[in-house]
Amino acid sequence: MTTAGGQFAYWQVMKLFIWVLPAVVLIRTSELRLRDVIGLSHVRSILLWGGGLLFAASALIDRAVGHRPLFSPSLTWSFVGGVVVAPAVEEITFRGAVLGGLLKRYGFLAANTLTAVFFLGIHLPGWYSQGRLWAMLAHPIGGALSIFIIGWTLGLVAYKSKSVAGSTLTHILNNLFSAL
Predict the structure, then answer these.
(1) What is the 3-state secondary structure (H, E, C) of the chain?
(2) Positive or negative, the Cα torsion across 156, 141, 80, 122?
(3) Is residue 2 pLDDT above 90, yes or no?
(4) Domain map of the chain by residue range?
């Protein structure tokens, strides 16, 4: 019998195999270098574009207006997965592999819009398994439309910062200050 923490850790390791390894292969077959995709040499752009100040400010205002605590009171595996693991895995996959590959064939607007649609699509099975699919589709503000807009914005951040590290930082800040 496994514990909830052990099961969570198992799924985080599985994400690496299911998402990151194929993403790295796609990055390599797109003739991109992983080092360039991550783009740690663009520190100024990462901080400028990836600071996520707008996301963080809007989430903090939403929490304050809703009389909810600004930060999660406890450091759980779910918190770490949602704030650190998911953003890193999703950004390498979507902004690194998918957007990077699509930019080889399409302009930024088309490539980023397709990537945002795919990003929205990966949220659908989770919503379905949680019994929230119809609610997330029927109420797009805070649901499907919000995920699409966040995905599109993360693509813009990655593109402008020339770095997946920039969009990862924004994604981390968004998740830190939003639903968690």
Answers:
(1) CCCHHHHHHHHHHHHHHHHHHHHHHHHHHCCCCHHHHHCCCCHHHHHHHHCCHHHHHHHHHHHHHCCCCCCCCCCCHHHHHHHHHHHHHHHHHHHHHHHHHHCCCCCHHHHHHHHHHHHHHHHHHHHHHCCCHHHHHHCCCCCHHHHHHHHHHHHHHHHHHCCHHHHHHHHHHHHHHCCC
(2) negative
(3) no
(4) 4-177
pLDDT digits (tens, 9 = 90+) for 87-106: 988 998 899 989 999 999 99
Q: Cβ contacts of residue 27 below 8 Å, gap of 6+?
A: 33, 34, 37, 96, 97, 100, 101
- The pLDDT confidence band at residue 177, using thresholds 50, 70 and 90, is confident
